[in-house]
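Memo to structure team: turn this sequence into structure tokens by end of day. - J.P.
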Amino acid sequence: MAKKRTYPRSCKLQALELVKTRKKSINEIERDLGITPGLLHKWKARMKADGAEAFPGKGRLKEDEELIRRLKREVEVLRQEREVLKKALAIFSASAEKSTHL
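Reply from structure team:
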């Protein structure tokens, strides 16, 4: 099985700039650059959809996706803290009831 090739953001932007100049067809540009057929079409669609946030890099998320991920993590921490507080309240309530019955 062939290893998946990755391309840096700068390479993608340069290839898309070649597409904009339209001196050659997309298929010819892909052949010249040694890029998998159809890849420039995917890059072009991604650039159109994401604009300046397209191609954030390996392991990086777009700004809004990073915010969502961070907020989900924060919500989970808050849920865990709430559960600890509920358990502590139950323990202290039980202790208070025992001391008033004596």
